[in-house]
User: What shape does this take?
Amino acid sequence: MKSEGVQTGHTPVLLEETLNGLSIKPDGRYIDATFGRGGHSRALLARLSSMGQLQALDRDPSAVEAGKALAAEDRRFAIHHANFAELDLVVPAQGWDGILFDFGVSSPQLDEPERGFSFLRDGPLDMRMDPAHGVSAGQWLEQVDEAVLANALFDFGEEKHARRLARALKARVHEKPFTRTAELAEFIAGLVPKTGAQHPATRSFQAIRIAVNDELGAIDRGLLAAEKCLKPGGRLAAISFHSLEDRRVKQFVQTRSRPPVVSRRLPPPDASHLTLIDRDKFLPSAAEIAANPRARSAVLRIAERRL
Ligand SMILES: C[S@@+](CC[C@H](N)C(=O)[O-])C[C@H]1O[C@@H](n2cnc3c(N)ncnc32)[C@H](O)[C@@H]1O
Assistant: This one.
């Protein structure tokens, strides 16, 4: 695996904790729902016997290309170009021993300016993980309603100046749409005061990226699909990079861990239940953060399907 900052590399975060949390069985069947550059997948394959199986998904075509190279050299592995929201439609919908989600964007997505995620390196204003689906960030800014934009900036970016910024962005887009990331970053920096070391456009770029890719909707659907696909005793591992993602994982596991309501007047409850095992969350060590600063906000949660 290449180190942090290398153009084509992605350093997997919380690697040991994730593999230990999944409690890998050498002959087991596993899913990596977010292949990226395969850091977690490769380490997982190293713990499988020749009978084990790993299938991976990614919605990003460049990640899928990297996955195809791995599939060509390891017959236990297969990759699908798909959104994990549709996990249960892409892989056999039951009988899996473990499923991993490593949410958010990969280092290559952030580092390659032509993907349009970076406010530091100029590129076309795109931000789509799958450039063949949906609308680019530039088009989204043109189409979105001012109130929806303000809510997205506030909810997904915790941008305090959301309302004022949304008004200014819509006025500017009306005059002349944004086409480049640097243009948008500069415009935001002219309106939002700088706090600490963070670039003033950091929060807005995160918010727009989350909206353009419907990242939170995909997480909700992906977790439900994963629960369906796990066998009893199978494990779910989910790595989040901000509180919006982690809160969804935590609430999902808590809700699904409660005993079902049994009533003579209601249909019989769904038999699947997760329960949190071990510690409910794992954080990266100081050594991991020093070696890979992108790990600093990572949170891993492990759950187990009970029935
Ligand atoms: C943080 S990276 C994963 C890195 C990977 N664990 C590794 O070690 O290389 C997240 C990956 O998930 C993919 N992704 C994000 N949302 C997705 C979704 N809804 N469906 C499928 N892939 C998704 C992104 O395209 C990206 O490649």
Summary: The longest strand covers residues 230-240.
